Amino acid sequence: MDYTEIVMQLVTAFLGSLGFALLFHVRREKLLLASLGGLLSWGVYLAMGAVSPALDAPRYFVAAVAVTVYGETLARIVRCPATLFIVTAAVPLIPGGSLYKTMSYFMAQDNAAAAAQGFYTLVLAVSLAVGMLFPTSIFHLLQRMKTLNKKPGR
Known about the structure:
This protein has helices spanning 3-23, 28-51, 56-78, 82-90, 96-107, 111-150. It is an all-alpha fold. It has one domain. The relative contact order is 0.12.
């Protein structure tokens, strides 16, 4: 993959996230931050291609972890829900192409290919979900510990 293709993919990820941020009525002052998350998510996905070129699931997982850390951190800095940043930043990672192939095989009545592609799509979706689950859980656990330590009598 050459430099111009990478830049084009990153710009497209940014614009796709910007579009969804606009669709979700993200406030003007947070639009850039939400859109940069999409660029980050796809950038991490592409960078992980050098480490794991043949396997997409680890790339999705690491990109989801990066997006979630980004979203949770920004949420605390700008004092708004992390969901705003995480959802818009995860848009480039949605395995829509894989889901399309699954449906295409299904409509062509190629059940074996549909099942294989469907399983692959499921693996990507689970990688994305688990990649978001771990950092969110850690952030909430740290927040809970911080709150408990502030209680009087401790």
